[in-house]
Write a structure and sequence with these properties.
Elements (H helix, E strand, L loop, with lengths): L1 H30 L1 E6 L7 H16 L4 E6 L7 H9 L5 E5 L11 H4 L7 H9 L1 H12 L4 E7 L4 E5 L13 E4 L3 H10 L2 E4 L5 H6 L5 E4 L1 H6 L9 E8 L3 E6 H4 L4 H35 L3 E3 L4 H6 L1 H8 L3 H9 L2
Parallel strand pairs: 1-2, 1-3, 6-7, 9-11
Antiparallel strand pairs: 3-10, 4-10, 5-8, 5-9
Helix pairs in contact: 2-11, 7-13
The chain binds beta-D-galactopyranuronic acid.
């Protein structure tokens, strides 16, 4: 009897403990806000790592009020679709190239123009200075419903093709995938090929089936997207686009944060920007070595003919930003 009583007591105590646990778990769940973050890149890519760490810091600093959930590898769609989801608050934090943001916030197209930066060091000096801040503010103050949190490096984009390319004439008749923005289709057409706008996630099979003859990107993207395994052999070092990348928060989400929480997001965003940059150069070196080991031939090319050929694109898209372009050129 005593034993049974004891057992009953234990059962009741257990039920109480379980009850409290369920209650506190439920309370925690209702008090916790999950922030959905998205990226076309896979887990382990510098940009994804930096955003995940931003989320961890925010979770710790708010005692678990916020928890970031990363949707990597383009599972929520291509960048165009993800931008749309961010605008309505279905995605809370998005890391994207400025490329597909151009049709939404035309002011960012200055950075999307071919050869607008002399090299990556020049691009970094510009985004780290007042012009970089101005472009971030333009995004935040535009009707895009996005708050620009910071920059990330996207290196230089060069051409990868099945046939060897060293001059604009070699691109004749070649269908080359570009990001979704008319500026890039114009750029490829000016460079001598046929630009085809397409989402990142469709490029692999389009290369495989011959819908495309090539594409263009930086080494880490070329590697992790597996595009180098879809029949391309050459990587012509045109470096025609040096496009910084960006991470934003949906304004729908931002406006629900307290002033203190917004300050925390800003602080951790600065740190995320620095962290990504520290990881970036190494990832370019690693990816280049792996691509070479996989048999991709890196082809040195004279950039001048490609630069000259794309002058009309800079004239067309840069006309409204003549002063800004002068300031970019003057940045050391
Ligand atoms: C990558 C970039 C992505 C995406 C992709 C593409 O370099 O990091 O944000 O824009 O290129 O070509 O679609």
């Amino acid at each position: 009897m005593k034993f049974l009583k004891n057992l009953n007591f234990k059962k009741n105590a257990l039920a109480m403990v379980l009850g409290t646990m369920t209650l506190s778990t439920a309370m925690l769940a209702s008090a916790q806000t999950v922030l959905k973050a998205a990226d076309v890149h896979p887990v382990g890519y510098p940009n994804v790592v930096a955003i995940e760490n931003l989320g961890k810091k925010l979770e710790a600093a708010t005692n678990g009020k916020f928890k970031l959930q990363m949707f990597p590898g383009g599972v929520l769609g291509g960048e165009k679709e993800m931008i749309e989801q961010t605008q309505v608050g279905a995605i809370n934090i998005l890391r994207t190239s400025l490329g597909p943001l151009g049709p939404v916030v035309p002011d960012v197209n200055v950075f999307n123009m071919p050869f607008v930066f002399r090299n990556e060091a020049h691009m970094r000096a510009v985004i780290d200075g007042p012009i970089g801040q101005e472009i971030l503010d333009k995004i935040t103050n535009s009707p895009s419903k996005m708050v620009a949190l910071g920059w990330m490096d996207g290196g230089s984009r060069s051409l990868y093709t099945k046939k060897k390319v060293t001059t604009p004439a070699d691109l004749k008749g070649q269908k080359v995938r570009m990001m979704g923005n008319p500026l890039f289709v114009d750029t490829m057409n000016a460079m001598g090929g046929n630009g085809i706008a397409m989402g990142y996630g469709e490029v692999f099979s389009a290369l495989q089936t011959g819908v495309l003859d090539g594409a263009e990107n930086n080494p880490p993207s070329m590697l992790t997207s597996n595009h180098y395994n879809a029949g391309v052999k050459y990587y012509a070092q045109t470096n025609h686009l040096i496009i910084p990348e960006i991470f934003v928060m949906s304004k729908v989400t931002w406006e629900k944060l307290s002033k203190d929480e917004q300050a925390l997001v800003k602080k951790f965003s600065k740190e995320a920007q620095l962290e990504q940059r520290a990881l970036w150069d190494k990832s370019v070196a690693d990816a280049s070595a792996k691509l070479k080991a996989a048999g991709i031939e890196f082809v040195a090319v004279d950039q001048k003919p490609f630069y000259d050929a794309t002058a009309p694109v800079r004239a067309k898209y840069g006309a409204a930003y003549a002063d800004l372009i002068k300031r970019i050129e003057a940045t050391k």
